[in-house]
Amino acid sequence: MQLSFNDLTFILGDEAQLRAMPEQATYPAFAPEILALLHTFSRLTLQDAEAKAWPDVVSLGFWCREASLAQMQATYGDLPNRYGRGVVFHIAPGNVAANFAYSLLTGLLTGNANIVRLPGRDHPQVAIIVRLLAAALAQHPALAPYICLLRYERQQSINDALSALCDTRIIWGGDETIAQIRRSPLKPRAREIAFADRYSIAAIDADSYLAHVDKDKLARAFFNDTLLNDQNACSSPSLVVWLGKETQVARELFWQHFHAFAARFYTLEPVAAVNKLTRLCLLGATWPGVKKVSADDNLLVRIELPEVNSAVMDLRGNCGFFLEYVAESLDDIVPVCGERCQTLATFGIENAVVTEWLAARRPQGIDRVVPFGRTLDFTLQWDGYDLVAMLTRTVAIG
């Protein structure tokens, strides 16, 4: 299939490289050459003055540092005769700046050549990451043919051509984006991984919170989970569930500390402020009994729900818009733990308690359970997918 390159903007790589990608020999998973490239990228990122101004870029640098990659590899143990599947076509989301890089680096770690459609939105972090990646490739030129970063409008013909090149297609986006991309056929043996629009929740044990010494540190952790990316990531909690006896006192203290931290480090854009008020009105008109329980400054909008269900989550917001519910037990949140629920962030609730509850209730959702401050930590098991298994093939010998 011929591709009109007049409609493509190459950010890293060029037309000849793109056309040659299907002919590139794949690497084994966690190949030393790939690890060396990522070590260099990590070092450059963590030393870069411009990168240090962006926490999500710094987090990316930590994610692929040598010790971190060694831990990932150790998790999988020996991977004999496991190679990349070929070409991976990544469609990155527009609202989370660093997401494209995690997707790309995962494709590299699993031995594949990678075509990445970058976010159309002008994120400063994207330019920084691309610059540092180019600098790392300059020290590892043999791997340059395995990375092609580009931009284009939502054109069916380009989606068709790039999909025809790939052996795995990874789509990050909402239901509409996935439906649009799926109009482009894949090769018969190609595989697709779709990361659809989902939501996440947080659960706090009130009594444990009141006993916690460093409430400012916990406020910082929750800030990193939520407002660091405007709650745009699927893994950022939009519903906060309270458990325990002293919920009223704990809620007041928690939001007091969180508001103080957000007031120092978060800038609420005017359009986001308007959107939050609109969302509040929609909730009030749609769900009887909802109650606004936050202050009037609109930095944080908190809506107390009389009950929880999957439908009310359709009106969740971002940029400091939180639904809130006081529960008797984890059983009360089962209605919001369907397949669209991705992450459960917890504080003061033992993992054994959550594990027992999951085994007893078996919700269709909740693919991750993490402590506060860890919801954005990308891993090679994401959205219920084992990405190493999905992005590699095994050669059976003997």
TrEMBL record:
What are this entry's molecular-function GO terms?
acyl-CoA dehydrogenase activity
Q: Which InterPro entries match?
A: Ald_DH/histidinol_DH, CoA_reduct_LuxC
Q: Which Pfam families match?
A: LuxC
Please, which domain of life does this record's source organism belong to? Bacteria
Spell out the SUPFAM superfamilies in the cross-references: ALDH-like
Q: Which UniProt keywords apply?
A: NADP
A biological process (GO) annotation for this entry?
bioluminescence
Protein's name in the database = Acyl-CoA reductase (LuxC)
Native source organism of the sequence: Kosakonia oryzendophytica
